[in-house]
Amino acid sequence: MVTSNANEEPSEDTSVSYTYYPIISENHSYFFQIGALLQSFGAADAIPENLWPEIKQFSVLVKTKRFEQIKDIPMDWKEDASVEGLVINRIESLNSEETDLVRQSFPEIDIEKILILEEGRKPSSKVKSFGMMGGGGVLAVVGVLLLFARRK
């Protein structure tokens, strides 16, 4: 999400709160199409631009906060062995602006079937989870006791 004045066009130095990018596996049909083109043309540079395949489907959209400005966002492919994070679909989803942007880039995508992975996010530890549940239970008991105390 870009942070800028609504009347200004974003520049390379415009701050970015977070960005989304799709990930695909090495078994995705896109790579098979590229492989066939490489066999036909011999090298990536020899493939005419109009023949390069498009990614039309993917299953995972990654939300990342590692880029601080627009100029920090890479414009070419990056190969990672893995991406670690937490699936956040049930916690938060794409807002209407984000959904529109994804649909502009990938018109055939079914937004409802995409997993959103927040890069670097980890689930709460068991101790923290049980502590929050225990604290909530204690507050509930105190609330009930205060209700009974107030009636007397």
Largest sheet, in brief, is:
4 strands, mixed
Query: Which spans of ≥5 residues are poorly predicted at pLDDT below 50?
Result: none
Estimated radius of gyration: 23 Å
**CA-CA gap between termini:** 55 Å
Category by helix and strand content: alpha+beta
3D shape:
elongated
Q: What is the helix tally? A: 3
Count of distinct structural domains: 2
- Pattern of helices and strands: EEEHEEHEH
Average pLDDT, to the nearest integer? 86
The proportion of residues forming helix, as a percent range, comes to 25-40%
Spatial order of the strands in the main sheet? 3-4-6-5
Architecture blueprint of SSEs:
Elements: E1 2-3, E2 15-16, E3 19-23, H1 29-41, E4 60-64, E5 85-87, H2 96-105, E6 115-119, H3 126-151
Parallel strand pairs: 4-6
Antiparallel strand pairs: 1-2, 3-4, 5-6
